[in-house]
Amino acid sequence: MTRKYDDELRKELCFLFYVTNKEIVNQFNQYLKRYDISFPNYIVLLYIDNDRPIYIKTLCEELYLDSGTISPIIKRLEKKGLINRIRTLEDERRVKIELTDKGIELKKEFSKISEDVFQQFDMSEEDTMSYYHLLRKFTDRNIIAKYKNQ
C-alpha cells in the first residue's frame, strides 16, 4: 500500500468512528430524553443489577471509568430516585449501589429502547453480528488489555 492510501484510510477510519459513535448516541438520546436520562447514565444503569452486589469500584472497573467520572453520574441517578448508595458496615469507604423500585421499573423499559434503536439501523442480523464481533475484538485488544496492564 502507498503512503497516500494509508493516510486516506486513516482519515476515513477516524471519520467513520466519529460519525458512527455520534449517530448511535444521538439515536439513544432521542429515546432517553423522555426519561430525562443521558446516555452515560443509561450505560451505568444497565450495569447495576440487584441480583449481584455492585460497588462503585466495580462499576469503574467494568465500564472503564475513573471515580471522577462515575461519581457525578451516581449522584444524578440517586437524585432522580433511581438508585441508592449504601455504605457497607464492614468498610464505610465501600459504597454499594442498588436500584430503587423506580430504577427497576425504568430498567425494564431499556430492552425496548435498545431494540428500537437497533431496528432503526439498516443492518441484517448477519451484519449486526459481524459488527458486534469486530467491536468485541477491538475492545478486547485495545481497551480491556490497556486497563488490565495498568
Automatic annotation (TrEMBL):
<protein>
    <recommendedName>
        <fullName>HTH-type transcriptional regulator SarZ</fullName>
    </recommendedName>
</protein>
<keyword id="KW-0238">DNA-binding</keyword>
<dbReference type="Pfam" id="PF22381">
    <property type="entry name" value="Staph_reg_Sar_Rot"/>
</dbReference>
<feature type="domain" description="HTH marR-type">
    <location>
        <begin position="1"/>
        <end position="140"/>
    </location>
</feature>
<keyword id="KW-0805">Transcription regulation</keyword>
<dbReference type="InterPro" id="IPR000835">
    <property type="entry name" value="HTH_MarR-typ"/>
</dbReference>
<keyword id="KW-0804">Transcription</keyword>
<dbReference type="InterPro" id="IPR055166">
    <property type="entry name" value="Transc_reg_Sar_Rot_HTH"/>
</dbReference>
<comment type="similarity">
    <text>Belongs to the SarZ family.</text>
</comment>
<dbReference type="InterPro" id="IPR036390">
    <property type="entry name" value="WH_DNA-bd_sf"/>
</dbReference>
<dbReference type="InterPro" id="IPR036388">
    <property type="entry name" value="WH-like_DNA-bd_sf"/>
</dbReference>
